[in-house]
């Protein structure tokens, strides 16, 4: 599988996440934002922000695993 195909599958998996999970994931994994700040931006606690990131990672892994990428 080529790099562009893998990237497209990752982008699709991220785009299909529920809004708060997607926003929390992007802030944490792409921008390195701390959970307190993510929570403030989403109107939730740091622990809830952490849960959003965790659930997003789980869903992305499941989506990519079904394509043989994980």
What are the main properties of this structure?
about 70 residues, mainly alpha, Arc Repressor Mutant, subunit A, 4 helices
Query: Which architecture per CATH?
Result: Orthogonal Bundle
Give the H and E element order.
HHHH
Percent of residues in beta strands?
under 5%
Poorly predicted regions: none
At the fourth level of CATH, the homologous superfamily is Winged helix-like DNA-binding domain superfamily/Winged helix DNA-binding domain
The average pLDDT is 92
What name does the CATH topology carry?
Arc Repressor Mutant, subunit A
Number of strands: 0
- The N- to C-terminal Cα distance equals 13 Å
Just give the CATH class: Mainly Alpha
Major beta sheet summary: none
- From the spread of the alpha carbons, the general shape counts as elongated
DSSP helix count? 4
Describe what this molecule looks like in 3D.
This protein is mostly helical and 70 residues long. It has a single domain (3-65), classed as Winged helix-like DNA-binding domain superfamily/Winged helix DNA-binding domain (Arc Repressor Mutant, subunit A, Orthogonal Bundle), CATH 1.10.10. 77% of the residues lie in helices and 0% in strands. The protein contains 4 helices and no strands. The chain has helices at 3-15, 19-31, 35-42, 46-65. Helix 2 packs across helix 4 (46-65) and helix 3 packs across helix 4. The radius of gyration is 13 Å and the shape is elongated. The protein starts with a helix and ends in a 5-residue tail after the last helix. The model has no long low-confidence stretch (mean pLDDT 92).
């Amino acid at each position: 599988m080529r790099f562009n195909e893998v990237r497209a599958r990752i982008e699709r998996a991220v785009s299909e996440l529920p809004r708060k999970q997607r926003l929390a994931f992007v802030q944490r994994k792409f921008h390195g934002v701390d959970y307190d700040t993510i929570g403030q931006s989403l109107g939730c606690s740091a622990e809830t922000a952490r849960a959003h990131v965790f659930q997003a990672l789980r869903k992305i892994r499941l989506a990519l695993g079904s394509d043989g990428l994980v």
